[in-house]
Amino acid sequence: MPGRARRLMPPVLLLAALLAGPPRPAGAETITVTHWGSAFYGAPYAVAMAKGFFRGHGVDITGILTSTGGGTSVRNTLAGGLPYGEVALAAAMEAVAAGQKLVIINGGVDSIGDILWIARPGAPLHSVQDLRGRRVGFTEPGSVTNMLILMALKANGMTAQDVKLVAAGGIGANLSAVLNNAIDAGMTGEPVWSENRDKVQPVFWARDVLPPAMMQTVGITTRAFAAAHPDILRAIIAARREGVAYIAAHPDESAAITAAAYNGDDKLYRDVFRSLLAVGYWSDGRLDYAGMDRMAEGLRIIGRQSGPVDWSRLVDASLLPGDLQQAGR
């Protein structure tokens, strides 16, 4: 749909058009990846683009649309020319609950080993318990970090009422808010943590207070697009899987590729990649249902999910390679 026509279309008709799965245009495509450029969810896509894995599967992904997380990533996915995105699992669940015709089709990141909360050096904050009465940042409502801070509080016998939660924006914005004393503690992750560890102190790592295997992100699309263009989605999933495998086999080269895509320091990224590989950070696409259940607990804590999740209503695993379709069950 041409940009000018899209701008002139009434919002209701525009959303209908986006969900309808229009004929595929020729040429390069853009997809959505949450926190592209500031967190490593996007590394397999950076590698897959650089190594030609997408083109090898017949789809030309050359651009990544990013966001600060949560529902923004879902909205970007809906608005993109190719409605595929890797977004927070909690954000995908909330979008479906709100009536969006979305479906989860692959796993993304299946570890919280990279996420921690930080404070200014010298602050008397060294544990979750120390956050009582403090201003505590996360990214966006419905994001992974929104879920994790609530779960960390619960694991320590606390609730959201024991702190002042602040949706501070992206990872860089959380860091700035901490350094500028706008909040007492904020979330961070790699590579921002390693780039700035001399400026801040850790308060707690999510992996130290919660099960480390939790599905942070998933791949989503619209149900209409999945029905109309399954081959494109299978190609994206397969190319991303190749990217994950290439990172494991060639971590230093993959770190350099991602550093170039992110404008980062490839030496620092090499160290970070080794630590992420050690915690099984990137899923090859399989859906870890136990890890998804753990993340869904965050939605139950804030009253947006009641009872167990019926994943069969939210997931279409048929687009995964055959060996992955039942792998996470």
- The CATH architecture of the largest domain comes to 3-Layer(aba) Sandwich
Q: List the uncertain runs.
A: 1-26
Termini gap: 39 Å
Shape: globular
Order of strands across the main sheet = 2-1-3-10-4
Q: How many domains comprise the coordinates?
A: 2
CATH first level of the largest domain = Alpha Beta
Strand residues, percent? 5-15%
Order of helices and strands: HHEHHEHEHEEEHEHEHEHEHHHHH
Full CATH superfamily name of the largest domain? Periplasmic binding protein-like II
Major pleated sheet:
5 strands, mixed
Rg, alpha carbons: 19 Å
Topology:
Layout: H1 3-8, H2 11-19, E1 29-33, H3 43-50, H4 53-56, E2 61-65, H5 71-79, E3 84-88, H6 89-97, E4 102-107, E5 116-119, E6 135-138, H7 144-155, E7 164-167, H8 171-179, E8 186-188, H9 192-196, E9 201-205, H10 206-209, E10 217-222, H11 223-228, H12 230-249, H13 251-262, H14 266-278, H15 289-301
Parallel strand pairs: 1-2, 1-3, 6-7
Antiparallel strand pairs: 3-10, 4-10, 5-8, 5-9
Helix pairs in contact: 3-12, 3-13, 7-15, 12-13, 13-14
Could you characterize what this model shows?
The chain has helices spanning 3-8, 11-19, 43-50, 53-56, 71-79, 89-97, 144-155, 171-179, 192-196, 206-209, 223-228, 230-249, 251-262, 266-278, 289-301, and strands at 29-33, 61-65, 84-88, 102-107, 116-119, 135-138, 164-167, 186-188, 201-205, 217-222. The protein has 329 residues and is of the alpha/beta class. The chain has 2 domains: 3-111 and 214-324, 3-Layer(aba) Sandwich (D-Maltodextrin-Binding Protein, domain 2); 116-209, 3-Layer(aba) Sandwich (D-Maltodextrin-Binding Protein, domain 2), CATH 3.40.190.10. A 5-stranded mixed sheet has the order 2-1-3-10-4, sandwiched between helices. The chain has a 3-stranded antiparallel sheet with strand order 8-5-9. A two-stranded parallel ribbon has the order 6-7. Residues 1-26 have low confidence and may be disordered.
